[in-house]
Amino acid sequence: MAGFMRIRVENVEHGCCVMLQHVIRSGLGQEQGGRLATIDSGSSADFKPSTSINRLGRDVLDYLFITNADQDHMSDLKGLEDTGIYVDTLIRNP
């Protein structure tokens, strides 16, 4: 499926949260969001993955990668649950 990848990297103090989304242009410059993945779910005072996902009009996160079991990598996991975001596939570092 043709399209492009939108990548957003947010500084969450001691680490980063990366959001990747496949986007399809559908005539007249309109965009339709496809699959959405997040690498880590760390948050800061200015950024929460759960809030960003809700702003996209989404309630499903297709992929969540947790690279490390430290708070700066997973501090918004509860936020994802509280906002009703369903995580389809969780991949974590053992």
Structure description:
This protein is α/β, with parallel strands linked by helices. The protein has a five-stranded mixed beta sheet with strand order 1-2-3-4-5. Strand 3, helix 1 and strand 4 form a beta-alpha-beta unit. The mean pLDDT is 89. It is built from three helices and five strands; from the N terminus they run βββαβααβ.
Question: Termini distance?
Answer: 32 Å
The whole-angstrom Rg is 13 Å
Helical content class:
10-25%
- Secondary structure: number of strands: 5
Q: Please give the order of strands in the largest beta sheet.
A: 1-2-3-4-5
Mean of pLDDT:
89
Poorly predicted spans: none
Number of helices: 3
| Shape descriptor | globular
Largest sheet: 5 strands, mixed
Short description:
By secondary structure, this protein is of the alpha/beta class.
Which features does this protein show?
alpha/beta, single chain, about 90 residues, 5 strands
Topology of this protein?
Elements: E1 4-11, E2 16-25, E3 31-39, H1 49-55, E4 60-66, H2 71-74, H3 77-82, E5 86-92
Parallel strand pairs: 3-4, 4-5
Antiparallel strand pairs: 1-2, 2-3
